[in-house]
């Protein structure tokens, strides 16, 4: 496992794993910030209760993301903090855009992640403290992105996405690269004993601090990912509220974690 400081992307908005950007010029990936792709960027499409309520900045933010990525279509979904990860077997066509002013944004059935081997499609999840999990199989150019809060981690959303990559795209876990992007750090994330218990980490007698990315590293290794293929961002959404939105910091806004393959 390697610690990485995500830096401003050279092929998209926001910040990205600089090692991935150097290694695979065909890959577009990263996590947006409050100021990228546009100042005041906010990608929120749904409220916390799941009701449709795009932020006033959503159209400008999603439009700028597509323009900056150079890809034709972006897919997103209402996220439910579960295990469901959906394969995308062909480029979406025909359906209306989710936002009137954003040509190319498509909504899928509720889920917490997407997997595809299709070039030209940007996979996206919204985050604001939860862990954005970015995955790529370089040989097959298969990519995935997952929204991993503690409930999703406990439900096995990471393991489910790796199973889907292997089953649908012939991309075994041992050959997949995994990057855990900017998220709330263990020093900032205090949770109750029930969260530790749900994650199989014992049950402390009182609320304690949890490093959710550390738990994901362990789960990825158990699922067959080579530890040398796992990288973890040093950046914390709560510590860097001037850069990222933080749910625990009181923000309603959302950034987007995205990944795609250029044609």
Give an account of the 3D structure:
21% of the residues lie in helices and 26% in strands. It is an alpha/beta fold. The protein has a single domain (2-261), classed as CNF1/YfiH-like putative cysteine hydrolases. Strands 1-15-12-10-11-8-6 form a seven-stranded mixed sheet. It is globular.
In whole angstroms, how far apart are the ends?
Answer: 30 Å
Helix content: 10-25%
Give a quick account of the main beta sheet: strands, pairing sense, barrel closure. Answer: 7 strands, mixed
Number of domains: 1
CATH topology title? CNF1/YfiH-like putative cysteine hydrolases
What is the H level of CATH, i.e. the homologous superfamily? CNF1/YfiH-like putative cysteine hydrolases
**Low-pLDDT windows of residues:** none
For the record, the CATH class is: Alpha Beta
Order of helices and strands: EEEHEHEEEEEEEHHEEHEHEE
Number of strands: 16
Radius of gyration: 17 Å
Query: What's the number of helices?
Result: 6
- Residues in β-strands, percent: 25-35%
* Assigned CATH architecture: 4-Layer Sandwich
Spatial strand sequence of the major β-sheet: 1-15-12-10-11-8-6
What general form does the structure show?
globular
Structural class: alpha/beta
Average residue-wise pLDDT: 96
């Amino acid at each position: 496992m390697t610690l990485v400081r995500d830096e401003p992307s050279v092929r998209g908005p926001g910040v990205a794993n600089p090692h991935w950007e150097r290694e695979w010029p065909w890959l577009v990936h990263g996590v947006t910030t409050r100021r990228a792709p546009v100042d005041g960027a906010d990608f929120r499409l749904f409220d916390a209760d799941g009701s449709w309520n795009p932020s006033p900045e959503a159209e400008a933010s999603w439009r700028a993301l597509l323009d900056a990525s150079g890809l034709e279509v972006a897919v997103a979904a209402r996220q439910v903090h579960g295990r469901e990860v959906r394969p995308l077997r062909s480029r979406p066509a025909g359906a209306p855009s989710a936002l009137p002013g954003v040509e190319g944004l498509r909504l899928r059935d509720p889920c917490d992640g997407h997997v595809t081997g299709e070039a030209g499609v940007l996979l996206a999840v919204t985050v604001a403290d939860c862990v954005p999990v970015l995955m790529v199989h370089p040989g097959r150019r298969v990519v995935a992105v997952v929204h991993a809060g503690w409930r999703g981690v406990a439900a096995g959303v990471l393991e489910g996405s790796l199973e889907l990559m292997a089953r649908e795209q012939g991309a075994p876990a041992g050959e997949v690269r995994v990057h855990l992007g900017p998220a709330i750090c263990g020093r900032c994330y205090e949770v109750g004993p029930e969260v530790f218990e749900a994650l199989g980490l014992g049950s402390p007698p009182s609320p304690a601090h949890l490093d959710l990315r550390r738990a994901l590293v362990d789960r990825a290794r158990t699922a067959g990912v080579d530890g040398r293929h796992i990288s973890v961002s040093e950046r914390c959404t709560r510590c860097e509220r001037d850069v990222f939105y933080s749910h625990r910091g009181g923000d309603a806004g959302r950034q987007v974690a995205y990944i795609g393959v250029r044609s």
